[in-house]
Amino acid sequence: MYNFFERHKKTIIWAIVVAFIIGGVGLIGLNQAGMFKNSSRTGDQASVAAIVNGTKILHSQLDTASTNLSNQYRQYYQQMGQDPSSLFSGANGAYLQLSIKGQAMQQLIREALYAQQAKQMKIRIASKDVDAQADKQYNDLLSNYKITEAQLVTYLHGQNKTLEQFKKEMRDSVEMQLRDKTLRNAVVGNIEPSDDQLAAYFEKNVSKYTEPEQVRASHILVKDLATANKVLDELNKGADFATLAKKYSIDTGTKDKGGDLGWFGRGRMVKAFEDAAFSMKVGEVSKPVKTQYGYHIIKVTGHKPAHTPTLAEVKTKVHDDYVKEIGDKKFNDWYKKIHDQAQITVEMPLVNAYMIEQQDKDKGLAEFQRILDSGSSDDSYLPYYIGRIYEAKMTAAQQQKKTLDDKTDQTAADKQQIATLAKEIDTDKKNALSAYLKALENTNTDEKFLQRVLTLAPDNTTVIYLYGKLLAERGDTLGADTRFQEAISKDKTYVPAYIGSGDMAVKSGDYKRAVQQYQAALKLRPGDVSILTKLASAYLALKDVDGAQKTLDQIAQTDPKNIKLIIGLGDVAYERLNAAASKRDALSAKTNRTSDEDATLKDLNNKIAQYEKEAVDQYTKAISNGGSLDVYIKLGNAYLAGGDLENAKQNFQHVILRSPYKAEAYSGLAETLMKQGDKQGAISNYRLAFSRTFDNGKKEEIGNKLVSLVPDDMDLKLKLAAVYASEYKWSAAIKQYAAVLNAKPDSLEAYRGIAEAYKWRTQYSTAIDYLKRGLQHASVAADKIDLYNKIVDVDQAQVGQNKPLSDAGLDALFQLGTLYMAQGDEKDAKAKLQKLTSDAPGYKASEVTAMLVKLGVTPSTQTPSETVQPQTGSSTAQPQASQTKSNTVHPTQGSSDGS
User: Fold this and answer.
1) Has residue 23 got a pLDDT over 70?
2) Residue 628 lies in a domain
3) Cys bridge to 75: 15, 98, 543, 739, which one at CB 3.0-4.6 A?
4) Is pTM beyond 0.70 here?
């Protein structure tokens, strides 16, 4: 991965051009731009990244080179359809960025040494040669990428660069290239191999010259199947392929050449295209071939079988390859010698350690460890870099040990070496794990890193717990709790896992279990304020005010100024306020109250005032101590419960102004406005609350309030139904979908939703009935295809996987085949019709056969004795129309309601 540039030179040509345009002089090429500085000059030493025989390499140079190389990585991975941001995230991303800096530094050092050696050898490049080559590269850039100079000027302007600056930087880069080429020629000298040397080289490398099977093809690429069929029809009528390519093809790289792609071997094209091209004869034209780029009409114009040439046939290439290989070795040996003799000081400890590691893992490990021990780096991933080296050493030792273990004739020395390697493996594994755990303590958790550590130590409690935390952050409550429980099973004293499990219970609404988990954690860590706070919140969710109060009292004994304590006391007062208000409202609604009830009502009003004041005081105190906007919402709710509507309104509006995505503030404001008689204002704010909450429980609550206020809003009912469906609350979802269909019997979304709900309730017949009713209102082919596919899915669920469909499913397959054929989608049409013939060979046999023949498929002949009768899906067994053969298969019958 980290020898990226060498392995992907050809692939990233365009990325280099982009980096060149943005970065000025490409990957490195900075010496000619005057960026290398001699150490005799004065300057800020902190800006120096390295010194090479007195020549300074500045941090700005390294940053530029690193950025350009990083851009090339990103461009390459984007071209490969991958997300480059994931490449640079987490622990692996941190190491990649270090490696990029290391590679860039190595290249900058190389450039500095080249410049010094060229100066010693008095190598000078004539200005006219530099100008000529720079002009050629500039013109090639414009022509190869089909851009005008005006377009380039516009692009450069967006990068705060002028055309003159760009051309100067290009000329500097060309001068460096020519200098390096001249330097290489001077070092390598003239290489003239003998015939014997070439023969030996050819024999050793004959596989390089073996030519694989190749085809030459042209193609016409279009966006859609309809256009592809139109082109094919014109070709069948005698039109010229090259002419149609120029007219129709959207491949700008080949259309002007008549679609010619040249010669190519296997592995060069996408699979569907390759399979078609290599299966065709010369002169043959394909039917439309679908790929991610569109639809291709392919014409094969040449074919070359695999061929191993003689030396005479490829002697020129063998000569060039030999000269290059020998020349490369001589030049690399020369460079190693001058590099080893150079006085090089790298002022960046981690980059220096990385470079040492590339040459010698043990020395690199020692340097990384020295940096960690000295505290001279604040990189939180430093222990991870160390862990990687230990893991690499462990892997290498494992491979050596396996080689010795596999020997059938082990010597005493082998056995001793195996024992030594086993100890090394164990030590390296422990060291790697220790380093990784240290890194996990101070870095953001990422899944790839955790998986890496779990591979080393699948039973490590800390890593299992951290994996649970990662799943919790992603919203996977069940998966997270499973990991927390696994951690507890491995270590009954591991407190964080009990807390994590309690947190997941809270998210699931299982507050009793949350209380149990928090209490278990408290037994292991008595008096822990953070656990006590969580426990108090769980008690409040259970409406156990006394339990919450006792828990908060424990916090008050040790940390009376704790802001969570203050908020918790406010929450207790608020719960008491709500309970008193509910009793008051119930009594107030009675028309014939007794004197005792009147006395109770008076007492309740007094308590309400008292509880409201307590809650308001505590929340206000929390706000003055830095409480968040959520405390303002609590304060608003306290005012609302106590009947102080204006103060409630002001607090909710305060939150909305500062954070317009707090759903609870909109909901609280809506309730306040309802009590003030502003129904439309309440509806508007309920809608905002519904759209801005991610809590499905709250969405249900708000949605139901809205539905009661605007019962004719069918879109709202569809959204509420979808919320219920996402929570697997099928009865509630069905109720909303049914209400929509009563008002809008043409709502395909409602038919799909209600059918899905009945499918999950295993009421398959009812689900299919609703899908069929939906088909009566489907006017677009895409909607019909979707509904018929859903019928097939439901029917397959009813009869069981890999079992023949019933009549409903078979008819849906037939209709799908017809629809796909009408759209020209032969692939999907074949799939549906072949599934139909597989499940029920006798079903509409003549029509299906005719359709398959049109699609180029010759159906297998079926005899009456081989016919499989489809399932009827009805509650009563139906007699077969014909039972002329004793071995006709009769499937089991489905139930009337599909349950």
Assistant:
1) no
2) no
3) 15
4) no
